[in-house]
Amino acid sequence: MEHKEVVIIGAGPAGLKAAKSLLDAGAHVTIIDRNKKLGGQLTKQTHKFFGSEKQFASFRGIDILELLVQDLGRYAERLNILNETSVVGLYKDKVLSCVKHDRYFKIKAKRIIMATGASEKHLPFENNDLPGIYAAGAVQTLMNEYGVKPGHKVLMVGSGNIGLIVSYQLMQAGVQVVALVEAASSISGYLVHASKIKRLGVDILTRTTIKKALGTDQVEKVVIWDVDDTWQGIKRTERTLHVDTVCISVGLAPLTELLMQVGAEVTYVRELGGNVPIINPYYETTVKGVYACGDALGIEEASSAMVEGALTGMFVAEDLGYTLEESTQKIKALKSELTFLRSGPHAEKIRTGYMKVGVKT
Amino acid sequence: MRIKEHPILSFDVDEMINFTYNGKALQGLKGDTIASALHANGIKKLSESIHLKRPRGFYCAIGNCASCNMVVDGVPNIRTCITPLKEGMVVENQVGKGRVYGT
Ligand SMILES: Cc1cc2nc3c(=O)[nH]c(=O)nc-3n(C[C@H](O)[C@H](O)[C@H](O)COP(=O)(O)OP(=O)(O)OC[C@H]3O[C@@H](n4cnc5c(N)ncnc54)[C@H](O)[C@@H]3O)c2cc1C
Ligand code: FES
Which residues of B touch A86 (CB under 8 A)? Predict the structure, then answer.
């Protein structure tokens, strides 16, 4: 079994920033990611980011990723990257079991940072398991990473930023978005994104949802219907749309299975997307030496994931006995950056969520 | 179903990768995963559900959900959405839970 100083699970914005802080401090870092490319969600984000200036607002996700990876370049001798590797087990003695292709192996680490991000939720409706029904982020991956269209005609379900952005990106790829349905009475994402797709002729139907999908081996048609205030379908409002793809964009849930496996305390917080780990002010979970940051702590944004990652990396470095230059000032600056990112009205949900788990925002 | 023109990205890979799907010869491009290559060839059904034998395609495309499991080079339960396509791969629809080596 190999012994490592710090293992970071997940090479998204949170994990990459955590790595940077630790490498700056002098630590040896191993980053594990099941994907081939580093970057997590950023690998497919071709749109310009919102967020703060300091966290690259108005840069495209794919360009931010380049910068984050470049930042690690000069530390090659202390950085070990295990890509195409899935962590499938995590144990109390900080042993990780990993699978790379057909090889299974174990690693023991002094400290572990969980930066596993999130998984997209699904929605219950008749035939929701037919091929052609995909998570919106999955379609984004298929198009923007692999250059493949999901189909010809799409129904988008959910009007959050992901639903709106992926609708636009579908059109950029030459795919028709037939309609976007949203059960709530108003659009939940940013108006700028919604206006962009409305201008291109996409029907945004609020108080509407998908009732069922039809098809034998794949989606051929869908039935949508109106919903009342309690989101129940209203009879005789059904209409059929001819689409071959349905994109589901109804939110994400933090990936915390490994944390549960190791016995870290988690609690369900609706505002943060699902089960989230309890952490102390240093981003340490209830299992000593196991830390968490980014979407794994609660669904937020790449901007806050980067700040949390940078902070977590610094705390872990200090815990390992490294002394950081001007650490007090740096930590203070990062914390106020987080407060700023979570200050607007759009972040109300996040603030409520973190209040429930006792995290200061 | 490849994207030909895109305002931001360029996909000008032309290195072909040969593989078979249920015995049929197909081609993907360098950089493809197994699932993206199949999708580009118009194949959306990747497996069947274990009990009710309902068709299954991918769902998350990032290795989270196991909806895209197939038999690859004789090994079952391969998440084809995150497994890079390689020359000569033998890809098959998976039936049931798949058989593990030697069983
Ligand atoms: C369509 C869309 C648009 C967005 N737009 C914006 C925006 O404009 N501005 C903004 O700030 N944010 C945006 N976001 C949100 C942002 O992408 C995420 O909040 C951010 O990527 C979270 O970072 P992370 O590092 O926590 O997780 P991720 O980026 O999800 O990375 C987690 C990584 O962990 C890996 N992993 C997980 N489990 C394992 C395991 N067991 N073994 C090995 N590897 C594992 C995954 O493969 C992944 O690479 C958007 C998201 C989407 C989907
Ligand atoms: S589609 Fe979810 S694991 Fe491949």
Answer: 63
Residue with tokens 């499991």: B69
CATH architecture of B16-92: Roll (3.10)
Tell me, using a 6 A CB cutoff, whether residue A347 lines ligand 1. Answer: no
Judged by phi (left if over 0) then psi (alpha if -120 to 50, else beta), residue A326 lies in left
Domains, chain A, ordered by start: 2-119+252-356 (3.50.50.60), 122-248 (3.50.50.60)
Question: Is the model's pLDDT at A279 over the cut of 80?
Answer: yes
What pLDDT was estimated at residue A53? 65
Read off the pTM.
0.93
- Spatial CA neighbour of A31 closest among A201, A170, A40, A332: A40
Q: What residue ranges do the domains of chain B occupy?
A: 16-92
Token digits for A199?
């201008």
pLDDT at residue A345 tops 90:
no
CB-side exposure of A185: number of CA atoms within 13 Å? 3
The Cα A86–Cα A88 span in angstroms is: 6
Provide, as residue numbers in chain A, all residues whose Cβ is less than 8 Å from the Cβ of B64. 119-120, 255
A174/B4 touch (CB, cutoff 8 Å), yes or no: yes
Mean pLDDT rounded to a whole number for chain A? 94
Q: B84: exposed, middle or buried (C-beta count within 10 Å: 0-12, 13-18, 19+)?
A: middle
Q: What is the pLDDT along chain B (103 residues), one digit of tens a residue?
A: 899 888 888 888 789 999 999 999 999 999 999 999 999 999 999 999 999 999 999 999 999 899 999 999 999 999 999 999 999 999 999 988 887 766 5
How do A221-226 and A95-100 pair as beta strands?
Answer: unpaired
What's the CA angle centered on B45, arms B91 and B97, to 5 degrees? 65
Per the CB < 8 Å rule, is B3 touching A147?
yes
- pLDDT for the residue A51: 65
Inter-chain contact B54–A129, Cβ cutoff 8 Å? Answer: yes
- Give the ipTM: 0.95
